[in-house]
């Protein structure tokens, strides 16, 4: 059984050395709700700081690669692929999808969640001067493939 507690009940990093190396992939999402005028400005390319989606995408990719530096007890992983996509959804939401992949002994859920979260935070940071009321919401794991625990697909939210 995997646990982050040792025999004395102290937190430690899980030993994955006996686990088989398999292809593992995880997809996470985040949504950022904002004023319609803010989203229009981003989509039109009129933001004074430049291409907001491009900067947020790069920030998400960088964050995925540094997840073990940010999340205690998280294994440092050699990711083989990180994709972060940002898309306008309706008139006031940016939908962020982050997908991480590797061949290894432990999963990439935390990397995908970190990528989506940091992309959302970067979007907020770049736009806060024009819209301090933005809300980061619905950060969640959408799908996980590979590994001992098998395939996970999140329930569709209403």
UniProtKB/TrEMBL annotation:
Substrate binds at residues 73-75, 110-111. The active site is at 125. It comes from the Bacteria. Pathway: Cofactor biosynthesis; molybdopterin biosynthesis. It is an enzyme of class 4 (lyase). SUPFAM superfamilies: Molybdenum cofactor biosynthesis protein C, MoaC (SSF55040). Residues 13-147 form the Molybdopterin cofactor biosynthesis C (MoaC) domain. Keywords: Lyase, Molybdenum cofactor biosynthesis. Signal peptide: none annotated. The keyword Zinc does not apply. It catalyses: (8S)-3',8-cyclo-7,8-dihydroguanosine 5'-triphosphate = cyclic pyranopterin phosphate + diphosphate. Belongs to the MoaC family. Catalyzes the conversion of (8S)-3',8-cyclo-7,8-dihydroguanosine 5'-triphosphate to cyclic pyranopterin monophosphate (cPMP). Homohexamer; trimer of dimers. This is Cyclic pyranopterin monophosphate synthase.
